[in-house]
C-alpha cells in the first residue's frame, strides 16, 4: 500500500515539475488516486480472506 502511494506521489512531483508552473495540482491528484487504488486493493484482499 505504501509503495503504491509513494510511486503515485513521485509521478505527481514529476508531472508538476515538467508540466505545471509551480502549483502542486498533479501531486495532489496523483496522491489521492494512489490512496484510492491502494484502498481498493486492500479491500479486495480482505474480502478474499473473509470468504
Brief account:
This is F0F1-ATPase subunit. The protein has one domain (2-50).
- Give the biggest beta sheet: none
The residue fraction in helices comes out at over 70%
Strand segment count: 0
Strand proportion: under 5%
| Global structural class | mainly alpha
Keywords: Membrane, Transmembrane, Transmembrane helix
InterPro entries: ATPase_put (IPR032820)
Protein name: F0F1-ATPase subunit
Transmembrane segments: 25-43
Write the layout of secondary structure elements.
Blueprint (H helix, E strand, L loop, with lengths): L1 H18 L5 H26 L1
Organism: Flavivirga eckloniae
Pfam families: ATPase_gene1 (PF09527)
Protein name: F0F1-ATPase subunit
Folded structure, characterized:
- InterPro entries: ATPase_put.
- The chain crosses the membrane at residues 25-43.
- It holds the Pfam family ATPase_gene1.
- This is F0F1-ATPase subunit.
- It comes from Flavivirga eckloniae.
- The protein has 51 residues and is mainly alpha-helical.
- It has one domain (2-50).
- It is 86% helix and 0% strand.
- It contains 2 helices and no strands.
- Helix 1 (2-19) runs antiparallel to helix 2 (25-50).
- The longest helix has 26 residues, at 25-50.
Output the keywords.
51 residues; mainly alpha; 2 helices; 86% helix; rod-shaped; transmembrane helix
Amino acid at each position: 500500500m505504501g509503495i503504491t502511494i509513494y510511486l503515485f506521489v513521485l509521478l505527481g512531483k514529476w508531472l508538476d515539475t515538467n508540466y505545471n508552473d509551480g502549483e502542486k495540482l498533479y501531486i495532489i491528484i496523483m496522491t489521492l488516486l494512489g490512496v484510492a487504488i491502494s484502498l481498493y486493493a486492500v479491500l479486495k484482499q480482505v474480502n478474499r480472506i473473509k470468504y
